[in-house]
Amino acid sequence: MISRRACFRNLLQSLRTSYSSSKIGDYHRFASRASSFLQQVFEPSTYSDDENPGVDWDNLGFYMMRTDYMYMTKCTKGECFEQGQLSRYGNIELSPAAGVLNYGQGLFEGTKAYRSEDGRLLLFRPEQNAIRMKMGAERMCMPSPSIDQFVDAVKQTAIANKRWIPPAGKGSLYLRPLLMGSGQILGLGAAPEYIFLIYVSPVGNYFKEGFAPLNLYVEEEFDRASRGGTGGVKSVTNYAPGLKPLTRAKSRGFSDVLYLDSVNKKFIEEVSSCNIFILKGNVIASPAANGTILEGVTRKSIIDIARENGYQVEERVITIDELIDADEVFCTGTAVGVAPVGSVTYKGQRIEFKTGPHTVSQELYTTLEGIKRGLIKDNKGWIVEID
Ligand SMILES: Cc1ncc(COP(=O)(O)O)c(C=O)c1O
């Protein structure tokens, strides 16, 4: 039960922070809020917002880089999250008995901020990440920030770390919202306290292949998710079990693994950290989000773009045999973007797919990236302008 006082406080806060989508790009409001937070908590910063942090923008990979600020807020079980604050990026203190450390009560998200050619700062559908975190929190018995609180926190954190947003076309600022059971709990149960925080890092390509096609290995020994489990939410517990198959596949020269369904070992599900699509003729298909795969924000967006571009799009069960017979295969995700798959290896057989400039995946990639980077007009209300 959420106490009345807490919710009144939350309501006041959300009234203060509420936005309408038409005003979503009101930079000055958010910028001044972010800077007033910074003034409250810190000495005035020793650098200007636009000071280059000394990053080699041409050689960004997907690595953690220490930036200036992170956002954090707490709440006790049954209450709402307090108004969060920005603080200098650094370590946080946790009880050794914290729920997240002992029982994996944690969720994360991933979204990006881009700098457009004309200098605007853009977010891509951050409310979708907020909604997904809310659904995940329900599954993991955690309180979650409201949609407004989440989006406002993402904006504040992006603005506070503005100088780390790469120049147009050089990469993006990856924002990692994290929700965890921070309170101590010895017997299995929901933690008594929770932390919601956001940290950031400038990033380039997720895969070392860059824009080169991926070579996937079909994993038959290990499963990623099972029916009734947590595969459909972004629980931290979904990822460490994937390290063994991923490491093994990488040591054999593959880019990543493609998981099959855990019951029949016959239907394709997804890759370690991205969704998968196949193309045959004019039909694009992706495994249905039925609880064992993560319903990606990129996946949703690509489905909409593909339909708008005249393709027939299906979300359904897809057999590995259908994939083998596909013309093109590609992966989607915030970190990976739209990544063409050059080959899939299944039972020792390597199957190759069409890649290159005149492919459907390239067409979809160009449209999606164009919208995200402000090069193509956003007629869907996906872009949140913060500068
Ligand atoms: C398992 C998994 N599938 C798919 C995705 C793609 O989701 P999104 O497009 O929202 O980044 C991710 C990345 O978050 C993921 O971890």
TrEMBL record:
It catalyses: L-leucine + 2-oxoglutarate = 4-methyl-2-oxopentanoate + L-glutamate; L-isoleucine + 2-oxoglutarate = (S)-3-methyl-2-oxopentanoate + L-glutamate; L-valine + 2-oxoglutarate = 3-methyl-2-oxobutanoate + L-glutamate. Keywords: Amino-acid biosynthesis, Aminotransferase, Branched-chain amino acid biosynthesis, Pyridoxal phosphate, Transferase. This is branched-chain-amino-acid transaminase. It holds the Pfam family Aminotran_4. GO terms for biological process: amino acid biosynthetic process; branched-chain amino acid biosynthetic process. It comes from Juglans regia (English walnut). Gene3D superfamilies: 3.30.470.10, D-amino Acid Aminotransferase, subunit A, domain 2. Pathway: Amino-acid biosynthesis; L-valine biosynthesis; L-valine from pyruvate: step 4/4; Amino-acid biosynthesis; L-isoleucine biosynthesis; L-isoleucine from 2-oxobutanoate: step 4/4; Amino-acid biosynthesis; L-leucine biosynthesis; L-leucine from 3-methyl-2-oxobutanoate: step 4/4. SUPFAM superfamilies: D-aminoacid aminotransferase-like PLP-dependent enzymes (SSF56752). Belongs to the class-IV pyridoxal-phosphate-dependent aminotransferase family. One of its GO terms (cellular component) is cytoplasm. InterPro entries: Aminotrans_IV (IPR001544), Aminotransferase-like (IPR036038), B_amino_transII (IPR005786), BCAT-like_C (IPR043132), BCAT-like_N (IPR043131), BCAT_family (IPR033939). Its EC number is 2.6.1.42. It is an enzyme of class 2 (transferase). The modification N6-(pyridoxal phosphate)lysine is found at K234. The keyword Plastid does not apply. GO terms for molecular function: branched-chain-amino-acid transaminase activity. Its cofactor is pyridoxal 5'-phosphate.
